[in-house]
Amino acid sequence: MRLSSLKVEENSLMRFIVAAIFAMSFGASAETSAPVRLMTFEPAHFHAALIQKEMQPDVAARVDVYAQPGGDVDAHLKRIEQFNSRKTNPTHWQEVVHTSDNPLAQMLAEKPGNAVVMSGKNRGKIDALGKIVSAKLNVLADKPWIIEAEDFPKLAATLDSADENGVIAYDGMTQRFEVSCQLPRELVNDEAVFGKLDVGSATKPAVEMESIHYLLKEVAGVPLLRPAWYFDIAQQGEALADIGTHLVDLVQWTLFPEQAIDFKKDIQLTSATRWPTKIALAQFQRVTGEPNFPDYLKPSIHSGYLEYFANDTLTYQLRGAFVKLSVKWSYEAPAGSKDSELAIFRGTKSRVEVRQGNEENYLQTVYVIPTAPEFKAEVGAALKNKIAALQKNYPGVSLQSHGDEFQLMIPDALRIGHEAHFALLTRHFLDYVHDPKSLPAWEKPNMIAKYFTTTEGVKLARKSSTQK
C-alpha cells in the first residue's frame, strides 16, 4: 500500500484510522529512521512546495503540515501530489495535515519534526521565526523575513536565539545557485579581468541592478491566480522589501565574497523613491479570481484603481561603492516580453553585465565590456585564462567576441532553472543542520545588513514620496 498524500483533519476519527494504517503499512522506521523530519508551517506560497520537489536521502518521507484551513494549504497539497504522481522520478511524500486556528502553537506543542519550512505571508513572519528557534527547531524560511524597519531588532534577536539553541535559521537566497549570478562573481573578483571596483557616484554607480516583473502570468491562456492578500503591501511588503532582498544579497555576495558586512559602518543610504502600479477592478478579478477588492485593500483604492506600491528604487553606498537598485512590477508584459533583470558591475578595466532582454531570448546572459579600447587585448587574454580555470566547476563555458564586448556562452546543462535551485538550497540547509558549525560566520552579519538595507530603503522611499 502506498500513501502519496494524507490530509488528516484534527479531532476526527479519520486521523486515528489513517495513523494506524500508516504504522501498519510502513512501520515505525519509515517515520523515524531519517535524521531530518520536516514540518511545513502555513504554506501560502508555492516556494514551500518546491522544497519538496525532490526527495532527499536524509529527510523522512512523512511531512507534518500545520496551517489554518483554506485555499492556501489546499493548493500546497495539490502541488505535493503533483510531485508524487509525476511519471519521471516521482516523489513519495506523505503529508499529514494539522489544521487549527493557531497552527503555530499546535506545532510547537507537538513537534513531530526537527526542521520547519516557511514560505507564505510575510507580516509577522519574524515573530513566528523567533518562537520556532526558541523551541530548538531548525528553520528554512523564504524571503523576506521582515518587511518593515520597526521589526529590524527582532531579526538579530532571532539569529542570536538560533545560535544559543544550536539550530540553523537559514534564508532562502536561491539566486546564489544561478550560474549567471555565479559567473559574474568569479569575474568581478579577478583583477586581471575586472581591475579594481570603480566606486562611482550616485549618477554612475559601481553597481546597478534592475528587476522587472509582471503580475499577470498565463499558462495555455489561463491566468495563474495570485491570492488577494498578495496585493496588500502590509502583508506582502513593498517591492524593495520583497524582491529587493535578492538584489541586495547578490551585491554583497558578489563584491565581497565570504566577508562580513557591518551594517553600522559599511552601509549609507543616499536616496529612494516609490510609486504605485494602478490596477482596475477587472484586472484584479482576472489575476486573483476574486469578484471584488477585499475590504483591507479599500484604503489603497482611489478613483476606482488599486494603488499597489510595487515599485521602488534605492541608491546607497556599500563600503564606499555606490549601488543603485530598481524593482518594478507592471500588470501585464508587452507582447513578446517577459520578466527580466539587468545587472552592471563597473571595474577599472572592464564592465561585467548580466542582460536578460529580447536579444538574449530572456535568458540571463553574461557580458564583459572593456572600459577602453586599449584594454581589449589585455581583458580578452585574461578572460581566456579565466574561462580555462572555470572549466572544473563550470564545464563547457566558452567565450565569444562581439565587436567591443565579450560574451560568456553558457551551456544548457548549467542552466538548471529556478525550481532546481530549491533542491540545492535545501541541500545546503540540510548540511548545516547536520553540522551547525559549518555555517559560514559571515552569513549572520550579512543577513542583518541585507534586511537593514531593504527595510530602511522602504522607509526612506516613503519619507521621500511624502515630501514631494
Written account of the structure:
The protein is about 35% helix and about 25% strand. With about 475 residues, it is α/β, with parallel strands linked by helices. Strands 7, 10, 11, 12, 13, 14, 15, 16, 17 and 18 form a ten-stranded mixed β-sheet that branches. The protein has two domains: about 15-170, NAD(P)-binding Rossmann-like Domain (Rossmann fold, 3-Layer(aba) Sandwich), CATH 3.40.50; about 175-465, Dihydrodipicolinate Reductase, domain 2 (2-Layer Sandwich). It is built from 17 helices and 18 strands. A hairpin with a 2-residue loop joins strand 11 (about 300) and strand 12.
Tell me briefly what this model is.
The chain has 468 residues and is α/β, with parallel strands linked by helices. The protein has 17 helices and 18 strands.
How is the secondary structure organized here?
Layout: H1 13-26, H2 28-32, E1 38-41, H3 47-50, E2 62-67, H4 71-85, E3 94-99, H5 103-110, E4 115-118, H6 125-134, E5 138-141, H7 152-164, E6 169-171, H8 179-188, H9 191-194, E7 207-214, E8 218-219, E9 222-223, H10 233-236, H11 239-242, H12 244-255, H13 263-266, E10 267-280, H14 281-288, E11 301-302, E12 305-318, E13 321-330, E14 340-346, E15 350-355, E16 365-370, H15 376-390, E17 398-402, E18 405-409, H16 418-434, H17 443-467
Parallel strand pairs: 1-2, 1-4, 2-3, 4-5, 5-6, 7-13
Antiparallel strand pairs: 7-14, 8-9, 10-12, 11-12, 12-13, 14-15, 15-16, 16-18, 17-18
